[in-house]
Every structure is written in C-alpha cells, then in structure tokens.
C-alpha cells in the first residue's frame, strides 16, 4: 500500500529481524571483494590525540606567521621611533600586501 508509513529502522515486536546483526567479514575473508582485501579494517575510535593537535597547528601556521609579521613590523617601527604616519603606513602595507598579491595573481593569471 503506497499510503502506509515506511517500516521503522529499529527492531520492534513486529520486525525482530533487525535484532540480528550480520557478522562482519574480516579483511580478506570470504565475504570481502578482492580489491578491498588489501586495505584491511577501517580504524575505529577517535584519532590520536597528538595527531589532532599537530594537524590543527599545521592548519593554523600561515595565520600565525601572518600575525607574527604584523607584530614584528609594529614593534620594529616603534623601536625605530618612526613618525606616526610612517608607522601606520608600514603596518597597513604589511596587512594589505598578501591580499594585494593574491588579487594581482587572480587578475593576471591565464584562464
């Protein structure tokens, strides 16, 4: 009947077949296709704790370098006792230059 609701995906008294879970095939076992046998079982559980921090650090490294360069320019301009407008100009140039380079690349590239 097309008007009837779909069968639930959890075991019920009317549908006890969902209680039986199929057995998992071992890597290279009789139910595993030949091309999948070389890979072995998929890892289970959370990834390694140190690996997550390393991945996060590598992801954030360009932002950290960008921030460090801005701080270095601001500190150096203050140490050299530049005039206020010169200091602001150098800091703005440091902020804008990476974006200007990316926009220039996008504008000048061959399609």
Task: Describe the 3D structure.
It is a single chain. By secondary structure, the protein is an all-alpha fold. The chain contains two helices and no strands. It is 50% helix and 0% strand. The longest helix has 31 residues, at 49-79. The protein is elongated. The two termini are 56 Å apart. The model has no long low-confidence stretch (mean pLDDT 76).
Q: Helical percent range?
A: 40-55%
Total strand segments: 0
The overall pLDDT average reads 76
Task: Output the number of helix runs.
Answer: 2
What pattern of helices and strands is seen along the backbone? HH
* Measured distance between first and last alpha carbons: 56 Å
Short overview:
By secondary structure, the chain is an all-alpha fold. It contains two helices and no strands. The mean pLDDT is 76.
Set out the fold topology.
Layout: H1 49-79, H2 84-108
Helix pairs in contact: 1-2
Can you tag this structure with a few keywords?
111 residues, mainly alpha, 2 helices, 50% helix, elongated
